[in-house]
Design brief:
This protein is α/β, with parallel strands linked by helices. The protein is built from 10 helices and 11 strands.
Length: 236
């Protein structure tokens, strides 16, 4: 039976507002193996779940997150934007992919890793972002599990792979074909893709043998990934 790791993109955003506790719980209840969350810092250094730089799109508040304290954020959203600590508590023992959004400096990495350590979640959290952010994570935690996001067909340089030591290479799904999948596996990495949402695109990726799919439609992926195909087993 073919099984890939099913990762819920920002939770279950077709049913609940993305990056909220309700969205994360819904995704896990509908078959996700892991949830992907976007993490940024408030002005006072609290890691919270928000993809955008501002609250405008999701919360109809035209304020940048970086200008708000955690207390101000709670007031403006009615507590709707969870802290990373709250999200880790809400996801129980499930896997969590932490996507570090925007420019990621040492402060962001340190605050994020501190919360993960304090929450006792190091063994179930892995990190996703571009090279600069993942180099910072690797420097802060030599044992971190990393999904290096890569956005071009040109492969990462061997020196970069040696420095980051990713377990996963994380590609936008339209870039992935059979040749790329084979190359990633030859290089000793697992192949993660984001974010196909149609049955056709998800089915194509399953046929190519990707190892993980991050999607907004966790219900579709969960239904499709059990199609019989010998020789594949779920990842831990």
């Amino acid at each position: 039976m073919q099984t890939v790791t099913a990762v819920a993109h920002r939770g279950d955003p077709y049913r609940f507002r993305e990056n909220t506790l309700a969205s994360l719980r819904s995704a896990l209840g509908r078959g996700a193996d892991a949830v992907e969350i976007d993490v940024r810092l408030t002005r006072d250094g609290v890691p919270v779940l928000l993809h955008d730089e501002t609250l405008r799109r999701l919360w109809q508040v035209d304020r940048p997150l970086g200008a708000l304290s955690a207390e101000e954020l709670r007031g403006l959203t009615g507590g709707g934007v969870p802290t990373l600590a709250q999200a880790l508590a809400a996801t129980g023992d499930s896997r969590v992919m932490v996507d570090l959004c925007g420019p990621v400096g040492r402060r962001t990495v340190e605050r994020t890793l501190d919360v993960i350590r304090q929450s006792g979640a190091r063994d179930r959290v892995y990190y996703s972002a571009g090279a600069e952010a993942m180099l910072a994570v690797r420097a802060a935690d030599p044992a971190a599990e990393i999904a290096l996001t890569w956005t071009t067909l040109a492969p990462p340089r061997p020196a970069l792979l040696a420095a980051v030591r990713p377990r996963w290479l994380n590609y936008r799904f339209p870039l992935v074909d059979r040749e790329l999948a084979a190359r990633v596996h030859r290089d000793g990495c697992l192949l993660s893709v984001w974010t196909p949402d149609t049955r056709r695109s998800i089915s194509r990726l399953l046929e190519l043998g990707v190892d993980s799919i991050t999607t907004n439609r966790i219900d579709v992926l969960h239904a499709l990934r059990s199609r019989p195909e010998p020789g594949r087993t779920p990842l831990p």
